[in-house]
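Lab channel / #folding
Pinned by the channel admin:
"Please post every new chain as: sequence first, then the C-alpha cells as a reply. Keep commentary short and put observations after the output so the thread stays searchable."

First post following the new format, from NK:
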Amino acid sequence: MIRRQHLPALTVLAATLLTAAPLASAQGFDPTKVDWDKLSKIPMQDFFIKQFNDKCGSCHGEDLRGTTLGPALVGVPLKGGETVQQIARSIAAGAVDKGMPAWTGTLPEQQIYNLALYVSEQRQGTTILDKRANIEVRIPMEVVRSERAAFRVETVARGLDALPFAIEPLPDGRLLLSERTQGLSIIGLDGSKTPVEGTPPVYGDLGSFLGQVVGFGWMLDVALHPDYRKNGWIYLHHTDRCSDCNELSRKSKRPVSMNRLVRGRIRDNRWVDEEVLWTADIATYTDTTDLAAGGRLAFDDQGYVYFSVGMKAAVDWQGVQDLSLPYGKVHRLHDDGRIPADNPFVDVPGAVKSTWTYGHRSTQGLAFDRRTRTLWATEMGPRGGDELNRLVRGGNYGWPIFTSGINYDGRPVNGAKLTGITLKPEDTVFPVVDLTPAQGISALIAYRGREFRGWKDSLLVGTLRATDLLRMEVRDGKVVHTEVLLKDIARVRDIAQGPKGELYVLLENAAGSQIVRLRAAR
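Reply from TO:
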C-alpha cells in the first residue's frame, strides 16, 4: 500500500476540531463496548429522537420549543453558541444555576456529541437521512431581493427524470442534460427534451439503501471543452459497468462499475467520435453503488481536465489514503487524456499517475476560478463534515482520519483505527468551510458573469438535504460571508453559468425534476 502525506501545516486546533473525538478528549466512551448491531435495528432518526427525549425533552420539549422548565432550542439564539461544538460544550458543562445538570461524567462524550448534533440538525431543519426528495419544488413567483442582486426565477424545463445529475449550457442557448439512468439529452429553447443516441450505456435497475436510490452504470457529469466552438469536444463522466469481469463480480455474482472519462461530439443528435480518456484497472471495479462515485469534472485555463472519483470501495474509507487505488481522489489529465508530467505522484512506484489530490470522501462539486486560478471542490461528509475545499497539488484532505462528521448511526468514524494510518495535522489540508450538521453540499461554480455583477468573487453552492442555493463570498481564499439566495426550493443538483451570465439550476425531485433560470430583475 502506498501512503504519502505532505503539504502546508495548519494548526493543531483545527485538527482537533476535525477528529472523531468532538470534545477535549474521548475519555469515558469506548465504542467497542457499544452494541452497535442492536442499535442498527432501530430506525436511526427514531433512535436519536429517543436519546433527546429521554435526556432533554422534559425540560426543552420534545419539539425543542421549550417548556416551563427550560428554554427553546430552535428558532432562538443560543447563549452558549450555536455550532455543534459549542452546543456539545453547553450540554457537557450544564447550567447548574438554572437547573440544568452538567452531563460530563454522566453521559459519554460521543452521546453528548450526538445530542448536540441532533439539536443542530433540528435548528437547521434537516434530518440525519435525506427525506426531502418528494417535497414540492417551490419556484418563487415574485422578484427575489438578495443582498447584492434582485432576480427572477424562470422555469426552463420540467417533468425531467427523478435522478438528474448535470447541466451544461450550449452557445446557442440550448442545454445539455445528464440523467443518471437516462443518459444524455438536449434541452431545446422551448424546454423540449431530445435524447442523444449512442452515448455510453446506462442502467435503470435500482435498489435502495438508507433511503437513497442505488445502482451501477450511471451517467454523471457533462462539460464542454473550453474551445468547444472550435473543436466540438464534449466530455462525459460516467460509470462503466460489467459483469463476471473481475474477481469481485465473479464472487458476488453482481455487476461492478467504476468511473470513466470519455469525450466525443454530437452530430444529428448522435454521439460520435468517442475517445476514452481515462479508465481504471478493471480489478478496481466494485459493487459499491454509483451513489458513491463522485463524478464531477472541471477544466482549468492551462489545458487540463480534473475529475473526481468518490469512495467507491467496499466501505467508504477503503482505498482513500492508498495512492495505488483510484478511490477518494481528484484526478488530472491533459485534455486529450495524457498524464501530465508534473502530476504529483507520477514518480511514485505503483501510484495511480493521474492522481492530483487524495483523502476525499465524496467530491460532489468541482469548479475552477479563472481570475484567482483556484480549483474549488465540495465534499459530502457522513452525518456532519460537509466541506468546501481549495484543492492544491498533491494535497491530502484527511478522510477518514480527520472529519467533524460521525457515522449515520452515531458511532465515531475512528478513521485512524480503521486504516492503521497516523496522519499529522501539518500533513493535511483542512477545509476552508466545514458544514456540520451536513447540508448535503453538492455542485458549485465560481461566478464571473455580467448578469449579476454584485456576485463577483462569489461561489454559488447547492445543497441537497437543506434544499438551499447558497452564495459564498470569497476574499483571499477564505469565505468571509454566506448568503442563502434561495431557501427550501428543492434539492439543488447542479448549477451552470450561461453564455450571457445567466444562471441555470438543476432541481432534483422524485415527482419530476426541473431546470430553472435566474435572470436579473431590471
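NK: DSSP finds eight helices and 27 strands in the chain.
TO: also worth noting, The domain at 12-124 is CATH 1.10.760.10 (Cytochrome Bc1 Complex; Chain D, domain 2).
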